[in-house]
């Protein structure tokens, strides 16, 4: 008897466990999201910027850091997806749509963060109506809109063939898909050819848009500030782009591997490995750039710039530089991705990617805050900034929203290629 | 007699009255060493310029030859005058500028206080600060007091970056913020090399100072009434405006007026004969962070 019961129990376990895990996942996400919404309402809407630890000396803080973090993730994953759709590297096809979806979701999250940082949400449309052509930020706002539209359209065309397939089923997903494809019955080869061409065009348009418009542009929001000598360098937008590639690649790896693990699917080892070596390459380039940025910075002998570098590297805040920026974002993952034993293992590659994802947060904070803490003129006080509880809760809430949106997207749309694995179809139904 | 015989005055009576106590203009002008006819003609045409019947350029074209003949070297105005800074030649009104003599500044912060009172800035915000730096060690040291308002840069980085054109340069040289348009993104604060901008976090002195919220400073000449939670200018960026609202009534900025050391000078930089222009041309003059190319309109004397 007992063995029989055990057996039944054992047989139940995987499916059961998965359900339970999913439940925990959703519940915890919604709790964090709920707390975030609460703190947005009580803080941002009821007290305004007073609810943050921002000051006149440090007017930009954690939300701006998270904003560029998510814009970076978005631009990076999009650039990765162009490998598939723009340049036809079929090898990476499995992550193409996921990369597009994460690009969309991260873009939305980034825009939400910067929206939260705006003091007068009631005036916000002015930024769209009154276009200041010399303002990088004004260009960015317009680019973000175009880019987001492009991403959505591209994702749509990239999964249209699978939408047609899904539309045959009777459930909600089927209905949604039917609606999205305007009741198209068949997906012919002509359609396929057309879509491929469309995707290619959009991918190619998207590359300059993502590089110049979205990420290089976001970098130049900071790089054009002559008031901040540490940021005011031509290398800065490039560092932005390359670290976008680093974090975007890491995100795609992490999403893919975790998804395979959760769904208990066979992961594509060779693809992960080549993504891993791409990640290593990007990290290498970033190290080179950061090195020269600092080198030239020190040789410049500019009081403020050196002061900022000292703040970054040798102040009570410097843990974020040494541990997060140098350790998690650059050196540790690079070592993991170079050593022969670890670079072959999926788990280590996943570990390296997660490290990068955490470390780049530190990179973004170091881009925004230390240079503002440094006084601009002798005799002015040093700033002091760290995120307060309300800012953290809001940030976690928004990040939870990002995950919720992504997971909903995965559930509702055929983000995985339906015919790429035999068991996939049944999983989706 | 006429006054008593009629119940009201006729226009002729006024002129008669006026003749008695306004000195005869011809007689007065005759005492001047300069040409009276020229003066009268210019006055007449100046009225036409004001009425819009005559272009100021034509006015100058007609008179500059005779003015140079009359006044020689001292004549130094008119739009076509050579050697003028091109950035100030647009428009014809005054181009405000400030000169601060650091040798005269005693670091008393009167300017800071009067600025706070005039502009009713909330806690944590001051359009003007006096930065004190100590160089050297006791007993061989020196203290420099650097009063620092907004520089009203001629090439303002803050204007360059504002995504909504809420902050812009006016013809009179002042950089203004349209708080009704500002979205509060604080990009301009990050871009200002002089730390001149502050964000209105919505704080208030109402706790310590009864009636603080009763009125908002009429910055840029706009009356906003009571300071209310969430109403403009709260949650937008603010900065020194050279007391534009005072200039409009013909007063100097509050900091200039109250400076106990008389260290601050204010005036029209486009007029080469004004005190500020002359001081700004002195070898003692310097500007903050000149190398950035922002061209501040606040000049310091070393
Ligand atoms: S000092 Fe700063 S705020 Fe003032 S005009 Fe110059 S850049 Fe703008
Ligand atoms: S805070 Fe206001 S004035 Fe400053 S850049 Fe943003 S919109 Fe312009």
Automatic annotation (TrEMBL), chain A:
Its main location: membrane. The keyword Transmembrane helix applies. GO terms for cellular component: plasma membrane. It is found in: Cell membrane. The keyword Isomerase does not apply. It is a multi-pass membrane protein. Keywords: Cell membrane, Membrane, Transmembrane, Transmembrane helix. InterPro entries: Electron_transfer_protein (IPR052049), NrfD-like (IPR005614). Signal peptide: none annotated. The chain crosses the membrane at residues 24-46, 66-86, 98-116, 141-159, 201-223, 235-258, 279-299, 319-339, 346-369, 389-408. Pfam families: NrfD. Belongs to the NrfD family. This is Molybdopterin oxidoreductase. It comes from Cytobacillus praedii. The lineage of its organism: Bacteria, Bacillati, Bacillota, Bacilli, Bacillales.
TrEMBL record, chain B:
Pfam families: Fer4_11, Ferredoxin_N. Residues 96-125, 173-202 form the 4Fe-4S ferredoxin-type domain. InterPro entries: 4Fe4S_Fe-S-bd, 4Fe4S_Fe_S_CS, ET_IronSulfur_Cluster-Binding, Ferredoxin_N. It comes from Cytobacillus praedii. Keywords: 4Fe-4S, Iron, Iron-sulfur, Metal-binding. One of its GO terms (molecular function) is metal ion binding. PANTHER family: PROTEIN NRFC, PROTEIN NRFC HOMOLOG. This is 4Fe-4S dicluster domain-containing protein. Signal peptide: none annotated.
């Amino acid at each position: 008897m007992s063995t029989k019961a055990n057996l039944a129990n054992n047989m139940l376990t995987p499916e059961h466990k998965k359900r339970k895990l999913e439940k925990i996942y959703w519940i915890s996400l919604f709790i964090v999201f709920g707390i975030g919404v609460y703190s947005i309402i009580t803080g941002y809407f009821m007290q305004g910027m007073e609810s943050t630890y921002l000051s006149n000396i440090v007017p930009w803080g954690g939300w701006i850091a998270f904003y560029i973090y998510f814009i970076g993730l978005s631009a990076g994953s999009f650039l990765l997806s162009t490998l598939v759709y723009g340049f036809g590297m079929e090898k990476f096809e499995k992550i193409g749509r996921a990369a597009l979806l994460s690009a969309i979701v991260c873009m939305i999250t980034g825009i939400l963060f910067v929206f939260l940082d705006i003091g007068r949400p009631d005036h916000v449309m002015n930024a769209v109506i009154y276009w200041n052509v010399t303002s990088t930020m004004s260009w960015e706002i317009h680019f973000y809109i175009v880019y987001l539209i492009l991403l959505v359209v591209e994702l749509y065309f990239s999964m249209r063939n699978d939408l047609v397939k899904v539309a045959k089923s009777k459930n909600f997903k089927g209905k949604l898909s039917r609606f999205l494809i305007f009741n198209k019955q068949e997906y012919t080869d002509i359609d396929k050819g057309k879509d491929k061409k469309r995707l290619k065009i959009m991918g190619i348009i998207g590359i300059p848009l993502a590089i110049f418009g979205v990420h290089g542009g976001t970098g130049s929001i900071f790089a054009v500030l002559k008031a901040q000598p540490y940021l005011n360098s031509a290398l800065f937008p490039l560092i932005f782009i390359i670290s976008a590639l680093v974090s975007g690649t890491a995100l795609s790896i992490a999403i893919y591997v975790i998804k395979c693990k959760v769904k208990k699917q066979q992961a594509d080892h060779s693809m992960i490995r080549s993504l891993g070596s791409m990640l290593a390459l990007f990290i290498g380039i970033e190290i080179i750039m950061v090195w020269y940025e600092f080198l030239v910075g020190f040789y410049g002998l500019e009081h403020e710039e050196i002061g900022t570098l000292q703040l970054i590297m040798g102040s009570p805040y410097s843990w974020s530089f040494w541990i997060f920026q140098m350790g998690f974002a650059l050196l540790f993952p690079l070592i993991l991705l170079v050593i022969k034993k670890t670079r072959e293992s999926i788990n280590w590659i996943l570990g390296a990617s997660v490290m990068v994802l955490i470390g780049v947060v530190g990179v973004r904070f170091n881009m925004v805050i230390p240079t503002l803490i440094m006084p601009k003129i002798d005799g002015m006080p040093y700033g002091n900034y760290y995120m307060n509880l309300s800012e953290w809760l809001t940030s976690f809430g928004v990040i939870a929203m990002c995950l919720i949106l992504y997971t909903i997207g995965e559930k509702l749309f055929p983000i995985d290629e339906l015919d790429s694995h035999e068991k996939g179809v049944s999983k989706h139904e | 007699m006429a006054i008593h015989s009629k119940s009201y005055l006729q226009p002729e009576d006024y002129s008669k009255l006026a003749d008695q106590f306004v000195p005869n203009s011809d007689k007065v002008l005759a005492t001047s060493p300069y040409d009276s006819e020229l003066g009268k003609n210019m006055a007449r045409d100046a009225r036409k310029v004001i009425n819009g019947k005559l272009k100021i350029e034509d006015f100058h074209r007609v008179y500059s030859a005779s003015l140079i003949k009359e006044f020689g070297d001292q004549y130094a105005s008119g739009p076509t005058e050579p050697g003028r800074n091109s950035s100030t030649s647009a428009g014809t009104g005054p181009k405000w500028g400030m000169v601060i003599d650091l040798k005269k500044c005693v670091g008393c912060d009167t300017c800071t206080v009067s600025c706070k009172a005039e502009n009713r800035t909330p806690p944590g915000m001051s359009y003007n600060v006096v930065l004190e730096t100590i160089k050297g060690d006791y007993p061989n040291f020196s203290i420099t007091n650097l009063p620092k308002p907004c520089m009203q840069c001629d090439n303002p980085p803050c204007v360059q970056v504002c995504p909504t054109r809420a902050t812009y340069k006016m013809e009179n040289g002042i950089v203004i913020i349209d708080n009704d348009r500002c979205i509060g993104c604080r990009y301009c604060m990050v871009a200002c090399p002089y730390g001149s901008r502050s964000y209105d976090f919505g704080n208030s002195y109402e706790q310590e100072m009864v009636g603080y919220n009763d009125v908002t400073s009429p910055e840029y000449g706009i009356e906003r009434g009571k300071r209310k939670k969430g109403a403009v200018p709260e949650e937008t960026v603010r900065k020194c405006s050279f007391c534009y609202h005072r200039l409009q009534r013909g007063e100097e900025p509050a900091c200039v007026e109250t400076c106990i050391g008389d260290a601050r000078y204010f005036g029209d930089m486009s007029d080469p004969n004004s005190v500020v222009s002359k001081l700004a041309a002195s070898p003692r003059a310097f500007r903050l962070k000149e190398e950035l190319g922002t061209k501040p309109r606040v000049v310091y004397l070393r």
